[in-house]
Specification:
Helix content is about 50%, strand content about 10%. By secondary structure, the chain is an alpha/beta fold. It has a 5-stranded mixed β-sheet, sandwiched between helices.
Length: about 525
């Protein structure tokens, strides 16, 4: 019930006198007049503002262009004209159109070379066909016409450094793969660089096909790398987000495997590194997915960053600073013991026991239970204390102190670090590609990136110098001998590929099921 209805009832019941009613009406009249006066002032201000806007628009050349909902490009207008029945004039295409014929490419070749079947005399062969192939020679692209000869039993000459029937040399494909998957460049930028520096005109669609062909060619090498990883002495694992699910990096002294577009769960980890079968030492953060490994080393960098963050959030809290300083001192002592060659294995084990005692004393002095019962930073501090204490009890803080150095395939010895920085550095360019939207959006793309990136990154461990020349030399040796450096190490260690069906690659990246062929 509103105020006027209440007033009417009060007047009818004679609870309000006539004088009181007159006073109320007079007050309402005054309020109404004041509101009208305020409205007039607002109208005057609005009129002045409109005049000022018109004056400014005249100085600026008129009002801004009004927005149009429909597209007003030339193509959109041509479509509207076609809808109105107007015929569109045919375009005049400049230059040649259609497929560039093989004989036209051969005519542009700088030179020709003859390729005979291996082990067969040239007199017993006859010319089969000519294939033009782009090669990189002395820093520039050269088109070479290869004359392929056929032997008496249908043996064909094989062009060195060419995948299948490709028209681009392996050096071009390797350089393209490095630019796209290691440096994180887009196809457009990679093709632009090839054209600018080496005068190679490569289309984006051609680059896409070349990388798919390279990935199919390296599928077996990826399976070998997974086997070497599962039989490594030390493995560093880390993960980060990706356009599809996550990207997971596994770095060991024998292989570097990067999985793109996979789920970060125990099932994915089991496929690549089964906790029940892996007998090495796993370096990782304190994520729950890594908790079932027999020998594990948690990353000290993660723990120290958490402690340092508390000191920055509350600089006045001396206990945070004391804990951080003591924890950092213990880690430095562990690194010093690990580097000191005077200690025997038993001596290092005794020193680790003393470090465990220091961790226990430090955490118990800070009263973990009281901190966990607190709120805010106090609760976070309690969680950190509990985490450090739990890792110490599981013997996952000082495994790196007693772990011996590992031998890499290139002949160098590498000591075991107490952090997981190597896996994080492996993902650095990957994270940059993610932040710049240079990622894959399909399962086929992530499968291709997984294979090519894993092989290229693993080659760092096998080559004394990691350059395009050394990589190409190794790839040509693969093609000549039919055995990669990964497979050579596999045979040396007397390991065999798992006979699981489907393969590890197909388990991680299931191929789409083909649609049934219609009958009739």
């Amino acid at each position: 019930m509103d105020a006027f209805e209440t007033l009417r009832q009060d007047v009818q019941a004679k609870r309000v006198s006539l004088d009181r009613l007159v006073d109320l009406l007079a007050a309402e009249q005054r309020l109404l007049q004041a509101a009208l006066q305020q409205l007039k002032i607002i109208e005057q201000q609005l009129t002045a503002a409109r005049a000022r806007i018109e004056e400014l628009e005249k100085k600026l050349g008129g009002p801004p262009t009004t927005k149009v909902d429909e597209a007003f490009s030339m193509r959109a207008e041509e479509k509207r004209q076609e809808a109105r029945g107007q015929k569109r004039k045919g375009k005049k295409h400049k230059g040649r159109r259609g497929r560039f014929r093989t004989k036209d490419k051969i005519a542009l070749a700088e030179r020709s070379e003859s390729v005979f079947p291996q082990g067969i005399a040239a007199a017993e062969c006859h010319l089969s066909h000519v294939r033009p192939v782009w090669r990189l020679e002395e820093g520039r692209a050269v088109l070479v016409a290869y004359r392929i000869y056929r032997g008496p039993n249908s043996q064909y000459g094989q062009i060195p450094g060419v995948l299948g029937r490709s028209e681009f040399g392996l050096e071009i494909v390797a350089e393209l793969a490095y630019l796209v998957y290691i440096m994180g460049l887009s196809f457009d930028k990679a093709c632009t660089l090839l054209q600018f520096f080496q005068n190679l005109k490569l289309k984006k669609s051609q680059a896409n096909v070349l990388l798919y062909r390279l990935a199919r060619h390296w599928e077996r090498e990826f399976e070998i790398l997974c086997t070497l990883l599962a039989n490594s002495l030390v493995v560093h694992a880390d993960e980060t987000s990706w356009s599809l699910n996550s990207v997971w990096a596994f770095v060991s002294e024998q292989a570097r495997v990067l999985l793109f577009g996979v789920h970060k769960d125990a099932e994915t980890l089991r496929k690549i590194l089964d906790p029940k079968k892996f007998a090495g030492l796993l370096f990782s953060d304190d994520a729950s997915v890594y908790e079932n490994f027999t020998a594990a080393q948690k990353c000290w960098a993660h723990l120290l960053r958490k402690a340092i963050k508390l000191t920055l959030q509350d600089p006045q809290q001396l206990e945070y600073r004391t804990f951080t300083d003591e924890l950092l001192s213990i880690y430095r002592s562990a690194c010093s013991i690990q580097r000191d060659q005077r200690f025997s294995a038993a001596g290092r084990a005794d020193k680790v026991a003393l470090l465990d005692d220091k961790i226990l004393s430090l955490c118990t002095e800070m009263s973990v239970a009281d901190r966990l019962a607190g709120q805010g930073l106090e609760h976070d501090f309690g969680l950190l204390l509990a985490e450090v204490l739990r890792l110490m009890m599981k013997q996952e803080l000082f495994r790196f102190v007693t772990a011996p150095p590992v031998l890499q395939p290139n002949g160098t010895m590498k000591s075991v670090d107490g952090t997981n920085n190597e896996a994080e550095r492996t993902l650095r360019f990957t994270a940059q590609a993610r932040d710049t939207n240079r990622t894959d959006k399909t399962g086929n793309g992530t499968r291709r990136r997984t294979i090519v990136t894993s092989v290229l990154e693993s080659l760092r461990l096998y080559l004394p110098t990691y350059t395009l020349a050394s990589v190409l030399e190794e790839l040509l040796r693969w093609q000549a001998t039919g055995c990669s450096c990964f497979e050579t190490l596999l045979h040396t260690l007397k390991l065999k590929l798992p006979e699981s069906v489907p393969s590890i690659l197909d388990q991680l990246f299931p191929l789409p099921t083909p649609s049934p062929t219609p009958s009739g």
